Amino acid sequence: MEEEIYLNPPTEREVINRALCLSVLFLRSQAEAIYLSSPDKEIFNIESNFFQEVDKWIEEENLKNSFTEQERMLLGKDIGKWDENETLLSFTYLESLGVLFWALSLIDKLPPYDIGFKLSDVIDVIPVLKSGEEFLEKVKLRPFKELIKERDIAEIWYFRWKLGRMEKENYKLEEGKSYKDAIKLLVEKALSSGAISYTIEDDFPVQGKPFYSITGEDYLFLSEIILERFLTLNWLCGSYKSWDERKEY
Questions:
Q1: What are the boundaries of each domain within the chain?
Q2: Which residue of 108, 128, 131, 220 has the smallest Cβ count within 10 Å?
Q3: Would the pLDDT of 23 be above 60?
Protein backbone atom coordinates (compact mmCIF):
# COMPACT_ATOMS: atom_id res chain seq x y z
CA MET A 1 0.00 0.00 0.00
CA GLU A 2 1.13 3.55 -0.67
CA GLU A 3 2.42 5.55 2.26
CA GLU A 4 0.45 8.68 1.35
CA ILE A 5 -2.95 7.06 2.03
CA TYR A 6 -2.18 7.07 5.75
CA LEU A 7 -2.40 9.85 8.28
CA ASN A 8 0.78 10.93 10.00
CA PRO A 9 2.26 7.89 11.75
CA PRO A 10 3.40 8.32 15.37
CA THR A 11 6.95 9.44 16.03
CA GLU A 12 9.46 7.12 17.63
CA ARG A 13 9.00 8.99 20.92
CA GLU A 14 5.22 8.53 20.73
CA VAL A 15 5.63 4.80 20.11
CA ILE A 16 8.03 4.59 23.06
CA ASN A 17 5.57 6.38 25.35
CA ARG A 18 2.74 4.11 24.23
CA ALA A 19 4.89 1.06 24.97
CA LEU A 20 5.74 2.43 28.41
CA CYS A 21 2.06 3.09 29.18
CA LEU A 22 1.00 -0.37 28.03
CA SER A 23 3.78 -1.89 30.11
CA VAL A 24 2.26 -0.31 33.22
CA LEU A 25 -1.25 -1.41 32.26
CA PHE A 26 -0.11 -4.95 31.53
CA LEU A 27 1.63 -5.26 34.90
CA ARG A 28 -1.43 -3.83 36.65
CA SER A 29 -3.77 -6.25 34.87
CA GLN A 30 -1.51 -9.13 35.92
CA ALA A 31 -1.59 -7.90 39.51
CA GLU A 32 -5.38 -7.64 39.38
CA ALA A 33 -5.63 -11.22 38.11
CA ILE A 34 -3.41 -12.47 40.95
CA TYR A 35 -5.41 -10.61 43.56
CA LEU A 36 -8.69 -11.81 42.03
CA SER A 37 -7.57 -15.42 42.46
CA SER A 38 -6.06 -14.88 45.95
CA PRO A 39 -7.57 -11.80 47.62
CA ASP A 40 -5.54 -11.76 50.82
CA LYS A 41 -4.08 -8.79 52.72
CA GLU A 42 -0.43 -9.68 52.12
CA ILE A 43 -0.85 -9.71 48.34
CA PHE A 44 -2.80 -6.46 48.55
CA ASN A 45 -0.01 -4.78 50.50
CA ILE A 46 2.72 -6.04 48.19
CA GLU A 47 0.88 -4.90 45.07
CA SER A 48 -0.15 -1.56 46.60
CA ASN A 49 3.45 -0.78 47.54
CA PHE A 50 4.71 -1.78 44.11
CA PHE A 51 2.25 0.44 42.26
CA GLN A 52 2.96 3.37 44.56
CA GLU A 53 6.51 3.12 43.22
CA VAL A 54 5.14 2.82 39.69
CA ASP A 55 3.14 6.03 40.20
CA LYS A 56 6.34 7.83 41.20
CA TRP A 57 8.12 6.38 38.17
CA ILE A 58 5.31 7.63 35.88
CA GLU A 59 5.79 11.14 37.29
CA GLU A 60 9.57 10.96 36.90
CA GLU A 61 9.27 9.80 33.29
CA ASN A 62 6.63 12.48 32.58
CA LEU A 63 4.22 9.84 31.26
CA LYS A 64 0.96 10.85 32.89
CA ASN A 65 -0.40 12.69 29.85
CA SER A 66 0.52 9.79 27.57
CA PHE A 67 -2.18 7.58 29.10
CA THR A 68 -5.66 7.78 27.62
CA GLU A 69 -8.54 8.97 29.77
CA GLN A 70 -9.83 5.40 30.12
CA GLU A 71 -6.39 4.15 31.10
CA ARG A 72 -5.99 6.85 33.76
CA MET A 73 -9.37 5.85 35.16
CA LEU A 74 -8.27 2.22 35.45
CA LEU A 75 -4.97 3.08 37.08
CA GLY A 76 -6.77 5.38 39.52
CA LYS A 77 -8.70 2.46 41.01
CA ASP A 78 -7.50 0.76 44.17
CA ILE A 79 -5.87 -2.67 43.85
CA GLY A 80 -8.55 -5.33 43.57
CA LYS A 81 -11.19 -2.95 42.19
CA TRP A 82 -10.92 -3.85 38.52
CA ASP A 83 -13.88 -5.91 37.38
CA GLU A 84 -13.44 -9.21 35.55
CA ASN A 85 -13.68 -7.68 32.06
CA GLU A 86 -11.05 -5.07 32.93
CA THR A 87 -8.76 -7.76 34.29
CA LEU A 88 -9.17 -9.75 31.07
CA LEU A 89 -7.67 -6.81 29.17
CA SER A 90 -4.36 -8.40 30.13
CA PHE A 91 -4.37 -10.43 26.92
CA THR A 92 -4.98 -7.44 24.65
CA TYR A 93 -2.27 -5.47 26.47
CA LEU A 94 0.14 -8.37 25.96
CA GLU A 95 -0.44 -8.62 22.21
CA SER A 96 -0.28 -4.85 21.64
CA LEU A 97 2.80 -4.54 23.81
CA GLY A 98 4.54 -7.31 21.90
CA VAL A 99 3.82 -5.57 18.59
CA LEU A 100 5.14 -2.25 19.92
CA PHE A 101 8.30 -3.89 21.30
CA TRP A 102 8.79 -5.51 17.87
CA ALA A 103 8.28 -2.13 16.16
CA LEU A 104 10.92 -0.65 18.48
CA SER A 105 13.39 -3.42 17.54
CA LEU A 106 13.31 -4.95 21.03
CA ILE A 107 11.83 -8.21 19.72
CA ASP A 108 13.20 -9.84 16.56
CA LYS A 109 9.99 -11.04 14.93
CA LEU A 110 6.26 -11.34 15.38
CA PRO A 111 5.05 -14.80 16.42
CA PRO A 112 2.56 -16.68 14.20
CA TYR A 113 -1.06 -15.62 14.41
CA ASP A 114 -2.16 -18.90 15.93
CA ILE A 115 0.37 -18.52 18.75
CA GLY A 116 0.57 -14.83 19.61
CA PHE A 117 2.85 -13.28 22.21
CA LYS A 118 3.56 -15.02 25.51
CA LEU A 119 4.51 -13.50 28.85
CA SER A 120 8.07 -14.75 28.39
CA ASP A 121 8.36 -12.73 25.16
CA VAL A 122 7.88 -9.38 26.87
CA ILE A 123 8.54 -9.66 30.59
CA ASP A 124 12.30 -9.06 30.38
CA VAL A 125 11.79 -6.13 28.01
CA ILE A 126 9.27 -4.23 30.15
CA PRO A 127 11.08 -1.09 31.37
CA VAL A 128 8.83 -0.14 34.31
CA LEU A 129 10.84 1.16 37.31
CA LYS A 130 13.98 1.10 35.17
CA SER A 131 16.02 3.97 33.78
CA GLY A 132 14.21 5.69 30.94
CA GLU A 133 17.51 6.79 29.40
CA GLU A 134 18.81 3.22 29.24
CA PHE A 135 15.59 2.11 27.57
CA LEU A 136 15.85 4.88 24.98
CA GLU A 137 19.35 3.74 24.08
CA LYS A 138 18.06 0.25 23.23
CA VAL A 139 15.16 1.18 20.95
CA LYS A 140 15.00 2.00 17.28
CA LEU A 141 11.73 2.33 15.40
CA ARG A 142 11.69 0.02 12.39
CA PRO A 143 11.48 1.56 8.90
CA PHE A 144 7.99 2.45 7.73
CA LYS A 145 8.18 -0.15 4.96
CA GLU A 146 8.59 -2.92 7.53
CA LEU A 147 5.60 -1.66 9.51
CA ILE A 148 3.46 -1.41 6.38
CA LYS A 149 4.41 -4.92 5.29
CA GLU A 150 3.29 -6.43 8.60
CA ARG A 151 0.22 -4.23 8.65
CA ASP A 152 -0.84 -5.53 5.23
CA ILE A 153 -0.34 -9.12 6.41
CA ALA A 154 -2.41 -8.34 9.50
CA GLU A 155 -5.16 -6.95 7.29
CA ILE A 156 -5.31 -10.20 5.30
CA TRP A 157 -5.72 -12.21 8.51
CA TYR A 158 -8.30 -9.69 9.67
CA PHE A 159 -10.31 -10.09 6.45
CA ARG A 160 -10.24 -13.89 6.85
CA TRP A 161 -11.56 -13.49 10.38
CA LYS A 162 -14.17 -10.97 9.20
CA LEU A 163 -15.42 -13.25 6.42
CA GLY A 164 -15.86 -16.06 8.92
CA ARG A 165 -17.83 -13.85 11.27
CA MET A 166 -20.01 -12.51 8.47
CA GLU A 167 -20.78 -16.05 7.29
CA LYS A 168 -21.72 -17.15 10.83
CA GLU A 169 -24.04 -14.16 11.09
CA ASN A 170 -25.62 -15.06 7.72
CA TYR A 171 -24.62 -11.74 6.19
CA LYS A 172 -25.55 -11.79 2.49
CA LEU A 173 -22.83 -10.97 -0.02
CA GLU A 174 -23.45 -9.24 -3.33
CA GLU A 175 -25.49 -11.25 -5.81
CA GLY A 176 -23.40 -13.86 -7.57
CA LYS A 177 -20.70 -13.94 -4.90
CA SER A 178 -20.15 -16.67 -2.34
CA TYR A 179 -18.09 -17.02 0.83
CA LYS A 180 -16.29 -19.98 -0.69
CA ASP A 181 -15.10 -17.86 -3.62
CA ALA A 182 -14.22 -14.91 -1.39
CA ILE A 183 -12.11 -17.12 0.89
CA LYS A 184 -10.44 -18.72 -2.12
CA LEU A 185 -9.36 -15.31 -3.45
CA LEU A 186 -8.13 -14.28 0.00
CA VAL A 187 -6.14 -17.50 0.39
CA GLU A 188 -4.45 -16.83 -2.95
CA LYS A 189 -3.57 -13.31 -1.83
CA ALA A 190 -2.30 -14.61 1.52
CA LEU A 191 -0.01 -17.11 -0.20
CA SER A 192 1.38 -14.58 -2.69
CA SER A 193 2.01 -11.96 0.01
CA GLY A 194 3.60 -14.33 2.51
CA ALA A 195 0.79 -13.96 5.06
CA ILE A 196 0.64 -17.76 5.03
CA SER A 197 3.10 -20.26 3.57
CA TYR A 198 0.73 -23.19 3.05
CA THR A 199 -2.95 -24.11 3.33
CA ILE A 200 -5.00 -26.76 5.07
CA GLU A 201 -8.13 -27.79 3.19
CA ASP A 202 -7.74 -24.67 1.03
CA ASP A 203 -7.88 -22.40 4.07
CA PHE A 204 -5.57 -20.51 6.43
CA PRO A 205 -3.66 -22.92 8.72
CA VAL A 206 -4.41 -22.49 12.42
CA GLN A 207 -2.96 -24.89 15.00
CA GLY A 208 -2.79 -27.67 12.41
CA LYS A 209 -6.40 -27.13 11.32
CA PRO A 210 -8.21 -25.07 8.67
CA PHE A 211 -9.38 -21.65 9.89
CA TYR A 212 -13.06 -22.46 9.37
CA SER A 213 -12.92 -25.32 11.89
CA ILE A 214 -11.63 -23.26 14.84
CA THR A 215 -14.27 -22.86 17.55
CA GLY A 216 -14.76 -22.14 21.24
CA GLU A 217 -11.85 -20.82 23.30
CA ASP A 218 -9.41 -21.40 20.45
CA TYR A 219 -11.51 -19.12 18.25
CA LEU A 220 -11.68 -16.41 20.93
CA PHE A 221 -7.91 -16.62 21.43
CA LEU A 222 -7.25 -16.35 17.70
CA SER A 223 -9.74 -13.48 17.35
CA GLU A 224 -7.98 -11.46 20.06
CA ILE A 225 -4.59 -11.90 18.40
CA ILE A 226 -5.86 -10.97 14.94
CA LEU A 227 -7.80 -7.91 16.08
CA GLU A 228 -5.22 -6.51 18.48
CA ARG A 229 -2.33 -7.01 16.08
CA PHE A 230 -4.24 -5.44 13.20
CA LEU A 231 -5.36 -2.42 15.24
CA THR A 232 -1.91 -1.84 16.73
CA LEU A 233 -0.15 -2.07 13.36
CA ASN A 234 -2.76 0.28 11.91
CA TRP A 235 -1.93 2.77 14.66
CA LEU A 236 1.79 2.42 13.98
CA CYS A 237 1.16 3.20 10.32
CA GLY A 238 -0.86 6.32 11.11
CA SER A 239 -4.37 5.06 10.38
CA TYR A 240 -5.79 6.73 13.51
CA LYS A 241 -5.30 10.14 15.07
CA SER A 242 -5.02 8.60 18.54
CA TRP A 243 -4.79 5.24 20.31
CA ASP A 244 -8.39 5.58 21.49
CA GLU A 245 -9.60 5.78 17.88
CA ARG A 246 -8.42 2.28 17.03
CA LYS A 247 -11.37 0.30 15.72
CA GLU A 248 -12.12 -2.44 13.23
CA TYR A 249 -14.04 -1.95 10.02
A1: 3-138, 144-245
A2: 108
A3: yes
